[in-house]
């Protein structure tokens, strides 16, 4: 079954109208990552600055049959230096976003989160997958599946707020957040259920704003009205969640990849909470995911530009 990806395509059209984002593409040293950046440029979403070892970038361009002669190239010795140089371009105002190329996530993020020369704000950074699944009637945001390994309660608060803020940028006026666990009842032996209950109360008291938070909820009750009815759960979120807050990185990573490989979903990925959006795609992601990630990042960047410094809302 081929999935049209109409939701993500809508974001691409919106971002194209907003104008291209000057983007530091970090270590685009294989045909896949370079091709994704160039496809996003062709779609009018970004103006890429290619950062990395020039001989490797040119070799990737030759392998993919790409013409990069008109693009700005920033020479670095290796991938770590490329990450630092990309962050420097943002800090100097020469770039408005960062896009991951063919390097490991921890290499890129270590430069982004550096306390002295990085891109920290008052908000903890977190990753959001924006999933366009053919069997779900709306966009489904999954967080955090890439940055925070075993987040504590304070970090989870920021993860939820980041996702709500992104959902609102994407056009979801009052995002419904399901805090996932294996069960729907609070269990003192299951930290995920205790954290879920605390997050709900934090939302009640204004420590999380802009969305509706409920949990703990199992995955089926979060997204299936039929499962919700069967278990007699009363909830403003269950059965129609916009955001799935997972207990840890392993749960999130497996959930997102299962939706992609088994559920035929298309996805975009972006890191929030930094000074600028960071497009954090997997090296195995297709070009379509890289282009969609640029669109989501562009919408986020254009929205925060008019609202003051990113990462401050909700604090």
Give helix % range.
40-55%
Shape: globular
Report the major sheet: 6 strands, mixed
Characterize the quaternary organization of these chains. Answer: single chain
- Indicate the proportion of strand residues: 15-25%
What is shown here, in short?
With 315 residues, this protein is α/β, with parallel strands linked by helices. 42% of the residues lie in helices and 17% in strands.
Tag the structure with descriptive keywords.
disordered C terminus; 5-stranded parallel sheet; alpha/beta
Structure, described:
By secondary structure, the chain is α/β, with parallel strands linked by helices. It is built from 11 helices and 11 strands. The chain has helices at 6-18, 31-42, 54-64, 79-91, 105-112, 153-169, 191-204, 219-223, 225-231, 249-261, 287-305, and strands spanning 21-26, 46-52, 72-75, 97-100, 126-132, 140-143, 176-180, 212-217, 243-245, 266-272, 278-279. The strands form 2 sheets. Strands 8-7-9-6-5-10 form a 6-stranded mixed β-sheet, sandwiched between helices. A 5-stranded parallel β-sheet has the order 3-2-1-4-11, sandwiched between helices. Helix 2 (31-42) crosses helix 3 and helix 2 (31-42) packs across helix 11 (287-305). Mean pLDDT is 92; it is low at 308-315.
Helix and strand arrangement:
Layout: H1 6-18, E1 21-26, H2 31-42, E2 46-52, H3 54-64, E3 72-75, H4 79-91, E4 97-100, H5 105-112, E5 126-132, E6 140-143, H6 153-169, E7 176-180, H7 191-204, E8 212-217, H8 219-223, H9 225-231, E9 243-245, H10 249-261, E10 266-272, E11 278-279, H11 287-305
């Amino acid at each position: 079954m081929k999935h049209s990806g109409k939701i993500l395509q809508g974001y691409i059209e919106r971002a194209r109208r907003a104008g291209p984002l000057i983007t530091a593409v970090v270590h685009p040293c294989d045909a896949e990552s370079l091709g994704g950046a160039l496809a996003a440029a062709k779609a009018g979403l970004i103006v890429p600055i290619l950062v990395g070892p020039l001989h490797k970038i040119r070799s990737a361009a030759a392998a993919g049959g790409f013409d990069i002669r008109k693009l700005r190239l920033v020479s670095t010795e290796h991938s770590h230096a490329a990450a630092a140089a990309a962050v420097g371009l943002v800090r100097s105002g020469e770039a408005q976003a960062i896009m991951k190329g063919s390097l490991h996530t921890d290499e890129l993020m270590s430069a982004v989160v550096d306390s002295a020369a990085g891109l920290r704000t008052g908000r903890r950074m977190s990753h959001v997958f924006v999933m366009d699944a053919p069997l779900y009637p709306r966009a489904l945001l999954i967080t955090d599946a890439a940055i925070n390994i075993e987040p504590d309660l304070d970090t989870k608060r920021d993860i939820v707020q980041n996702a709500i803020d992104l959902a609102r940028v994407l056009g979801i006026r009052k995002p419904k957040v399901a805090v996932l666990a294996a069960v729907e009842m609070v269990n003192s032996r299951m930290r995920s259920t205790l954290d879920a209950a605390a997050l709900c109360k934090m939302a009640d008291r204004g420590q999380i704003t802009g969305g509706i938070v409920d949990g703990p909820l199992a995955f089926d009750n979060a997204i299936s009205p039929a499962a919700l009815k069967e278990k007699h759960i009363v909830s403003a979120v269950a059965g129609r969640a916009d955001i799935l807050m997972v207990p840890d990185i392993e749960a999130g990573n497996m959930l997102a990849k299962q939706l992609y490989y088994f559920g035929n979903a298309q996805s975009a990925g972006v890191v929030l909470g930094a000074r600028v959006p960071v497009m954090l795609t997997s090296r195995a992601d297709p070009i379509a995911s890289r282009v969609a990630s640029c669109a989501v990042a562009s919408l986020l960047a254009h929205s925060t530009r008019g609202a003051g410094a990113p990462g401050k809302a909700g604090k």
